[in-house]
Design goal:
The structure is a homodimer of 242-residue chains.
Chain A lengths: L8 H7 L7 H8 L4 E5 L14 E7 L2 E6 L5 E7 L18 E4 L3 E7 H10 L1 H27 L2 H18 L7 E3 L4 H8 L3 H13 L3 E4 L2 E4 L2 H8 L11
Antiparallel strand pairs in A: 1-6, 2-6, 3-4, 3-5, 7-9, 8-9
Helix pairs in contact in A: 3-4, 5-8, 6-7
The structure holds a DNA duplex (30 and 30 nucleotides).
Chain lengths: 242, 242
DNA sequence: CGCAAACTTGATGGCCGTCAAGCAAAGTGG
DNA sequence: CCACTTTGCTTGACGGCCATCAAGTTTGCG
């Protein structure tokens, strides 16, 4: 699959995973006006004009959504990879309840709400694709809630790794149970409600057991069955097709 | 505000909180065909025809959404009170990833997807109201993620009580910092990722400190400021207006 | 009044947090 | 190319929050 040269081609392909677009729809996406910016790792993603009348699209790199508490603690709410629309929810309800930040150096495109709304109005397929994205995000939130509330550290790691692998695979960014893993142990800890110290110990144990290799920003899942089983992982919520 | 006699009046008023409906919209909601059922406490909410081509509306009583793990543990994902639409997300993406159950005896109405979709197609206000409901649900999920990941038991309780009180107040089901509290300590534990034993101890402490009274299914918040402060509660995510 | 469900309390232990220190890796500048 | 710094990883010691197990007690309801 040769990627289209258009920067938003990645979004068109992503949305078309679930909905059948006409050539017109496809073209309309790719002709959306965008401002693209390259951000260094660990930078907040902020709307320059402060109007927050845009949605952002991840074109390259990894990002996350997070909330901060007064004591300085951070909870990561989701990770995002190329093709994702982390704040599509803002389309009809601005006033974000979370921050966004890059994990790696990343290329991010900003698309005006006005144009996205027009797309949704003119094309039922587009409206449905947007709805679907938001609903899948909510389903992913639910999976995280259950992980945070009722799984121990080892199971949490297993569940997150399974989720990330399948999402990357669906985006043609991973295969053969090998994937890039730019997340620091500190990021993993903030996503799973743990400390980085404990994170380190749990990872060591799981590595020792032969569940996976994790070094130089690369994760190789050695025993997918065991990992998925430890997590009680059910990929249905991701709605990746298959 | 005298409630309309129509069973779906409660939904119309709820959706109208955020969106301006015409009299036509209003009437269209109230004329939706529904099947209403009364369920005893602690019963699963199941679609009889198995097609799950319906959304449900809580008319009376409390319900919850949950996920189960293999070891029998339960994670509650959300609580729902009269006027709520717990599974509106199924409208354009069936295949639920969670179960629903009553907390108290409850009256639940089932509305066919077909009619809801037609409403959304014919009225932009309606479409926006649905979108908004789904997005607020996701925002609530995010608040729970942060609670589960980064707050201790005491803060979790404080946060949940603040959320529930404001939602009930907005539905005219609570006031003066007094609200019904039908949740068992076991339910609270399953929502907050704790055991019921620990739940009991934490509640006792908070009661002793004078934060609230909690007996005979009634919660009286004695010190709202202290409770909200302990939770670092910011009501913005609920989008209740005001 | 009797049963079941829910609440309460104590004792004990483990998972994970905190504090502290040292090591490794990666980038920076001279 | 090598000091130097920064960031991230690793490990040990210790403690606390919360889970587990095991009684009781209270509440609610038929």
């Amino acid at each position: 699959m040769a990627p289209s040269g258009n920067p938003l081609g990645i979004v068109a392909r992503r949305l078309a995973r679930a909905v059948s677009f006409t050539a017109v729809d496809q073209g309309a996406i790719e002709r959306l006006p965008v401002v693209t910016r390259i951000l260094e790792a660990s930078r907040d993603i902020i709307y320059e004009d402060n109007s927050s009348a845009h949605c952002c699209v991840i074109l390259d790199g990894w990002t996350c959504c997070y909330q901060l508490l007064a004591n300085g603690r951070r909870q990561i709410l989701s990770f995002h990879v190329p093709g994702d629309l982390p704040d599509l929810q803002s389309l009809y309800l601005p006033s974000p309840d979370f921050g966004m930040a890059t994990v790696t150096r990343a290329s991010v495109a900003f698309v005006p709400h006005t144009h996205l709304r027009r797309l949704a109005q003119q094309s039922p397929a587009m409206a449905q694709a947007f709805w679907r994205e938001v609903v899948v995000t909510a389903a992913t939130h639910r999976a995280w809630i259950t992980s945070l509330g009722r799984r121990d550290a080892r199971q949490k790691v297993a569940h997150l790794f399974c989720e990330l692998y399948l999402r990357l695979e669906a985006a043609s960014l991973a295969g053969d149970h090998i994937m890039p893993m730019p997340l620091r142990q500190n990021d993993l800890a903030d996503a799973l409600g743990l400390t980085s110290v404990h994170m380190n110990r749990v990872l060591r144990n799981m590595r020792t057991e032969g569940l996976f290799d994790l070094r130089s920003r690369r994760l190789k899942i050695r025993d997918w069955a065991a990992l998925a089983s430890a997590a009680e992982f059910n990929p249905q919520y991701l709605h990746l097709g298959n």
